[in-house]
Design goal:
Layout (H helix, E strand, L loop, with lengths): L9 H31 L18
């Protein structure tokens, strides 16, 4: 026979929500940091394609 589950408390919901948001903030922060590094040209660990044209020698 099916029994209804106990209701999750409000504090438990808030704790889980904070953990979930903290993970998202951490990932966003790392992405922003990487983007800043690439845009300023100080990156030593990324290989990426630029739109600069390579001059050909004839």
């Amino acid at each position: 026979m099916a029994v209804p589950k106990k209701r999750t408390s409000g504090s438990r919901k808030r704790i889980r929500n904070r953990v979930w948001r903290a993970k998202a903030v951490k990932v966003a922060s790392k992405a922003f940091s990487s983007a800043q590094s690439i845009l300023t040209g100080r990156s030593k660990s990324f290989y990426y394609i630029t739109n600069e044209k390579i001059s050909e020698t004839n």
